[in-house]
Write a structure and sequence with these properties.
The protein has 307 residues and is of the alpha+beta class. It has six helices and 17 strands. This is DUF1769-domain-containing protein.
Length: 307
């Protein structure tokens, strides 16, 4: 029997509510610090749906584009209502209680594999309240930043000036998140995103700027991770309320039908997560490491362990 999962989202832990997985309508998030949309997709989903809704097993998202081979995705789109350093806005996990006694043999190999994918990852999984975070711009599978007109920066998530929320489907490119972070290097008053700012001009040449407009380039993630892996680059750039961020965190390492984790670059090494999951929810936070502001939270919970 497949494990039963419940997926929730909210502006913080206190506001979490069960959301519809694989829905064609993303869940809206609004707080004093962030406004936007989130969609969680799980291939062959057999978990719980919100009250009054029927669980949707699949999504067309997994059929094409970079999502082929993925088994799950957290996709967000939104803007930060106050300017925030690219270095300070981070995405990752935090637990309420220690997990060190539950960690399986081979954890060190798992951490090395994850660090290979995301060298900017910081973590202390042996702490009393374990955590693992990386800059949002580094850890996302794909991330696209679009500049909107300053006059519209206070508008809601339904603004027609926001880019389309990608849903996946028959088109391998148009319906997926493009990899393009070049807007972060553009002058703030330049909606067209053509001329770099003086700050950006000091850290990136034209070739680098072009590489950050990766779109479907197979090296896009690598080029982005290499540039933004330099902390001094992140510290000199910022998200503003006129930047709409569309990002996808997706991979094929977890089978949610069995809750088995396959570790990348380990020759097939993996774990049965049900043996080690102690009943705590797994929460993904987007937060500001300097101010402590939480922008949003997505929570995964094994429902039968919480019953």
């Amino acid at each position: 029997m497949a494990p039963s999962l419940r997926i929730s989202a909210g502006k913080d832990v206190a506001s979490l509510e069960v959301i519809e997985v694989n829905s064609t309508e993303p869940h809206r998030l609004t707080s004093d610090a962030f406004e936007g949309l989130v969609a969680v997709r799980i291939k062959n989903f057999t978990g719980q749906a919100p009250a009054g809704k029927e669980a949707k097993k699949d999504s067309a998202y997994f059929d094409n584009g970079h999502a082929q081979g993925c088994t799950w995705s957290i996709q967000i789109q939104g803007r930060f209502k106050e300017e925030a350093s690219v270095d300070d806005v981070e995405f990752g996990n935090k637990f309420d209680h220690a997990i060190r006694d539950k960690l399986p043999w081979g954890t060190s190999a798992a951490l090395k594999a994850v660090s290979y994918i995301d060298p900017s990852l910081r973590q202390d999984i042996y702490a009393d309240q374990p955590w693992a975070f990386s800059p949002l711009v580094c850890t996302m599978t794909r991330i696209q930043v679009d500049r909107i007109a300053a006059a519209d920066s206070s508008s809601s998530s339904s603004s027609s000036d926001w880019p389309k929320f990608p849903q996946g489907g028959p088109s391998a490119e148009d319906d997926y998140v493009h990899d393009d972070t070049s807007a972060l290097l553009a002058a703030r008053d330049n909606v067209a995103q053509v001329e770099p700012s003086l700050e950006a001009d000091a850290i990136a040449d034209l070739g680098t700027l072009r590489s950050l407009r990766g779109h479907a380039d197979a090296n896009a993630h690598h080029n982005r991770a290499r540039f933004f892996g330099n902390a001094s680059h992140r510290e000199r750039l910022s998200y503003s309320p006129t930047d709409v961020v569309t990002a996808d965190f997706a991979n094929g390492f977890i089978d949610f039908n069995t809750l088995r984790l396959e570790l990348p670059y380990t020759g097939g090494m993996g774990f049965d997560l049900t043996r080690y999951w102690d009943g705590q929810p797994v929460r993904y936070y987007c937060r500001n490491k300097k101010t402590g502001t939480v922008y949003f939270v997505v929570e995964f919970q094994i429902a039968e362990k919480d019953s």
